[in-house]
Automatic annotation (TrEMBL):
Protein name: Cytochrome c553
Leader sequence residues: 1-21
Coiled-coil annotated spans: 387-414
PROSITE patterns: CYTC, PA14
The keyword Amino-acid biosynthesis is assigned to this record: no
Entry keywords, A to Z: Coiled coil, Heme, Iron, Metal-binding, Signal
Organism annotation: Armatimonas rosea
Length: 970
């Protein structure tokens, strides 16, 4: 009944919202032509939502004007006047940048046509019919076409089909492509684009001297085969996967070995793993029959998001985690902002709220992240011998545990038993059960329990749990005190516990430890009924709770308040006090339990025993479920429910033992939890060559990596609110080639793009083309770009000669200024430069530990990707802290000294050679005589100002590393 009520109320609320969003004014809506509808949905609505809705939308009507409905006729002229900034009044919008000339033109056309707003007649799917009509014809929702290259006039310029598509657009505008870049510009450009590193001067000279017709093609092949290729393109993928190695929020604690996912990505790019396989492994590698280690490692992407270990509302936090996954998957693989439909139907795209929750349901069986333990980590092995050795050591540990337990049992049987009275001393006992990872006793009353209820055994009973780790209980009831007197309470627990009697905290165990350290306390009680409360949590590696009490008198027997299955054999508590050997063996047992068998582990996804039911959540609130949904496809992409496996996939348990008999299983070497197969169903749909989005999105990302922007500039938004492709036929040609002829090979796609004459163009400007196409939408030249943060740091190390090219492995901690570290809540927490050798600190930037609350300062200043959400493209800002970093920062000063030492060695004391070699290393070209003269004069000037020769040379090197030619790429 409650759910039906929410559904009814929600339907009314959503209907009202739809009326406002689509502009149901009191006046009859004008019937629009198809052209007007298309113009409104593609141009007007996105502009209003982005720039105007805050002041003139549903939330308010500043100056009496609402722009979420048709504009009154008497306000049309004023609206256009204000966005132009005319009439002596402030330009609108007040709180945003002024509208661009193109945006002003949209407003002008809209007001000219009467400031209309489409009627809000609902489509059968609950979305405005105009939106769905637009969606049906939107380019991204059409099948990918196998497009033939167009015929062009200047056919001699066409090196491959890409050039024909680009040249056709240029010729239509009477424009010409730019001349080919110089060979030095080409090798520098393509080396950075494929490896993120500068070529050496020797490599440049060799390429310039190589007159073979295939010299450039061989260069591309060599760079694609370089192990540094995976580091460059792996970093771009990590941007999309919101890669970081800590959890964010106040403590920002480290995740367990996330670097293994980073290495998986680098290795996958280096191996040219087919992109469809790459997609499937990340979404469902644990469900693939041949997933192996990569299948586990790849699913680590699920665990990379931010995680609050103490949320106010744990169920809402769980849905926040699922939203993070849907956001990342939807934008990265499909280029759609499904996350905008979490609380309501999408405002710009034809995506239903129900579509969003269909995607949620694919993931609603995965275990919520707990920052480690069996639900977050699984063993990985290089070969069967490693696996067999691990299983042998697991068995040896089990035998030791069994032997210790037999010894403890013998001591318990030899000791006097505690009084297991049949009658319970507790009454009206209830419990609250929590599932989460605790390291200290939390404030349970601020948390939402998983379930509550009466305790049938009328004793503190942790057998009510459904697993042995990451759990908590709160028991509350009444203690029946038979007579007044002084009573002693005894408490022991594997992890944290707190006993409160009659409102007084008597005993508290906190933290993670193990049983064997029983505490007791006496308290005076009156006869009758007194309140009693017990709190308990279990982290992992053990389980146990023992609670008892003894009445007045030194020889009064203990009576159990916990079940014997909670605290082990019934005589255990008294044995621990009477026999020191028992306590010693008990501690030995707990220590052994807490020592995991050494093995490499993958941070990965695991699933619950059964997927949870999924409901549409009104306004995105976990407390307001409405209609139930099943895994399925978005309506605009075909709709319908997904065909899920009829039988669950049975695989090996976390101990490493294979499951034998019964249901079919994934090979035991994979050591994965049972899985529903839902994610593999989704992965197969996304990675299908017939998917309308997947190939386009990835082809566009590769293009973006080489041209600085995609054929679709909004690389993760192919919806109606995103940018239209400047060359839609070219995008379809690339996508169809990628998924069919090239077999999903990213390296082959690189080569296709890099060997085009379009890519080889110079970056020099052309006044005619610049006036006709200032944003270079037609690709009439190559855009100049600044080096990325990683490229800049890695180039400094490469030029100075101390770059450590080591691949893979745990992350490193370069030095960070003390002033920055002191800005943390706990200065220096989780940053360990003292553990690093100097050569480790000089590794490539992709291997620097990514701490969300402490981004490496150089990376932060030069626009490193955001770590909390998927990042499709980075900003390229110019701001004062960059110059302060490169001119005053310790890293650049230290590296300038390293470069000076290198130049001293290579110039044999010749100052002119010192200057020439330094400029050559930085710019990858021989300096001109005038540049050498200026360098010599600069060093002499420094010396005349009382700098030592060593300081003067180091300062020259510092300025060399700050040259624009060093930091920018033609």
């Amino acid at each position: 009944m409650r759910r039906q009520l929410f559904g009814a109320v929600g339907a009314l609320g959503l209907a009202a919202m739809a009326a406002m969003a689509t502009g149901k004014s009191q006046e009859p809506a004008k019937t629009l032509t198809a052209e007007q509808t298309a113009f409104f949905e593609s141009k007007v609505r996105p502009l209003i939502l982005a720039k105007c809705e805050g002041c003139h939308g549903e939330a308010g009507a500043s100056a009496g004007l609402r722009l979420d409905k048709a504009i009154p006729a008497d306000k049309l002229a004023a609206v256009l006047q204000r966005v132009k900034g005319e009439g002596g009044k402030p330009r609108m919008p007040l709180n945003n940048a002024p509208l661009s000339p193109g945006e002003v033109a949209v407003v002008a056309e809209w007001t000219k046509q009467g400031g209309f707003w489409p009627a809000s007649a609902a489509a059968p799917n609950g979305v405005g019919s105009a939106l769905f009509a637009m969606g049906k014809t939107h380019w991204a929702f059409q099948p990918v076409k196998r497009v033939a290259p167009p015929t062009v006039k200047s056919a001699a310029w066409v090196r491959n089909p890409i050039d024909a598509f680009v040249l056709a657009k240029l010729e239509a505008k009477n424009l010409k492509p730019s001349p080919t870049a110089t060979r030095r510009e080409l090798i520098r450009r393509v080396t950075y684009d494929l490896t993120g590193l500068p070529p050496t001067p020797e490599e440049v000279a060799a390429f310039e001297a190589d007159k073979a017709p295939d010299a450039y093609e061989k260069l591309v092949d060599r760079l694609l085969a370089s192990p540094h290729y995976g580091e460059k393109w792996g970093r771009q993928w990590l941007d999309l996967m919101r890669y970081a190695e800590t959890n964010s929020y106040e403590r920002d604690n480290p995740k367990p070995q996330p670097w293994r996912y980073r290495d998986y990505v680098i290795k996958s790019f280096n191996a040219d793993k087919p992109y469809d396989r790459f997609v499937k492994e990340q979404l469902a590698g644990d469900e693939l029959p041949d997933g192996g280690n990569d299948g586990l490692l790849a699913t680590g992407f699920y665990r990379l998001g931010i995680w609050d270990d103490e949320p106010t509302d744990r169920e809402q936090a769980r849905y926040d985690g699922l939203d993070d996954i849907v956001t990342t998957v939807g934008q990265t693989f499909m280029g759609l902002t499904f996350d905008c439909a979490r609380c309501h139907n999408h405002k710009i795209d034809p995506i239903l709220q129900k579509d969003y929750y269909k995607l949620v349901s694919f993931f609603n069986g995965i275990n919520h992240f707990r920052n480690g333990g069996p639900t977050d980590e699984k063993p990985i092995f290089e070969n069967e011998a490693q696996r067999a050795d691990y299983l042998k050591r697991v068995d040896e540990k089990k035998q030791k545990l069994d032997a210790l337990q037999l010894q403890l049992k013998a001591l318990e049987n030899a000791a006097p038993s505690a009084d297991p009275s049949a009658g319970s001393d507790l009454d009206d006992l209830t419990y609250k059960y929590y599932r989460d990872t605790f390291e200290k006793l939390p404030s349970f009353d601020t948390l939402k329990p998983e379930r509550t209820g009466p305790v049938p055994s009328k004793r503190f009973d942790i057998t009510l749990r459904d697993r042995d780790s990451a759990i908590g209980f709160v028991f509350e009831g009444t203690l029946v005190v038979p007579k007044a007197g002084r009573y002693t309470f005894f408490l022991d627990s594997d992890d944290g516990s707190r006993l409160v009697v009659n409102g007084q905290e008597l005993i508290k165990h906190d933290g993670i430890h193990g049983q064997g350290n029983e505490q007791s306390k006496a308290v005076q009680l009156e006869a009758g009924r007194v309140p009693i409360r017990l709190e308990y949590f279990q982290n992992q590696f053990g389980i146990g709770l023992a609670v008892s009490w003894a009445g007045p008198g030194p020889r009064a027997p203990r009576r159990l308040l916990s079940t014997s299955t909670s605290n082990g054999p019934e005589g255990q508590a008294s044995v621990a006090v009477a026999n020191p050997e028992y306590a010693r063996l008990k501690k030995q047992l707990e220590d052994l339990k807490n020592q995991p068998v050494a093995v490499d582990r993958a941070l990965c996804v695991t699933e619950m025993d059964q997927p949870q039911e999924t409901f549409v959540l009104l306004r995105g609130s976990a407390a307001a479920p409405a209609d139930k949904v099943e895994p399925g496809w978005p309506e605009i992409l075909g709709g319908g429910d997904a065909k899920l496996p009829g039988e669950r996939i049975s695989v090996a348990p976390s101990t490493g033992e294979p499951v034998r008999g019964g249901r079919p299983s994934i090979p035991a070497a994979q050591l994965s939890e049972s899985s529903s197969g839902r994610r593999l169903t989704l992965a197969s749909w996304i990675a299908s060559p017939d998917n309308k989005l997947t190939g386009r999105v990835m082809a566009n990302r590769v293009w973006q990596g080489h041209f600085g922007r995609g054929i679709v500039r909004s690389a993760s938004n192919f919806g109606l609110g995103g940018d239209s492709p400047t060359h839609p036929e070219l995008l379809d040609y690339l996508a169809s080639s990628f998924t069919h002829e090239l077999g999903w090979s990213v390296k082959k796609l690189h080569k296709l793009i890099l060997t085009s004459n379009t890519y080889k163009q110079s970056s020099r400007s052309n006044p005619v083309a610049l006036k006709a196409d200032p944003q270079n939408n037609l690709f009439w030249r190559m855009d100049m770009r600044r080096l990325t943060a990683e490229e800049l740091r890695d180039s400094v190390l490469a030029v100075c000669g101390n770059l450590n090219p080591k691949l893979y492995g745990p992350s490193v901690y370069p030095d960070i200024p003390a002033e920055v570290l002191h800005g943390q809540s706990v200065p220096g927490k989780d940053w360990y430069p003292d553990r690093m050798k100097p050569e480790d600190k000089a590794r490539r930037s992709i291997y620097i530990f990514v701490k969300r609350s402490l981004i490496f300062p150089l990376m932060d200043s030069f626009d490193m990707a955001e770590t909390d959400r998927t990042t499709p493209s980075r900003f390229s800002s110019t701001q004062p802290t960059q110059a302060l970093t490169t001119l005053n920062g310790k890293f650049f000063h230290d590296q300038a000294k390293v470069l000076a030492a290198r130049l001293d060695k290579e110039s044999n004391g010749n100052l002119e050679q010192f200057v020439a070699r330094g400029l050559t290393l930085a710019t990858q070209r021989p300096p001109t005589p005038s540049e050498i003269t200026r360098g010599l004069k600069l060093i002499k000037t420094f010396e005349s100002q009382k700098m030592s020769t060593e300081q003067a040379k180091s300062t020259f090197c510092l300025l060399t590393l700050n040259l624009n030619e060093f930091m920018y790429l033609d």
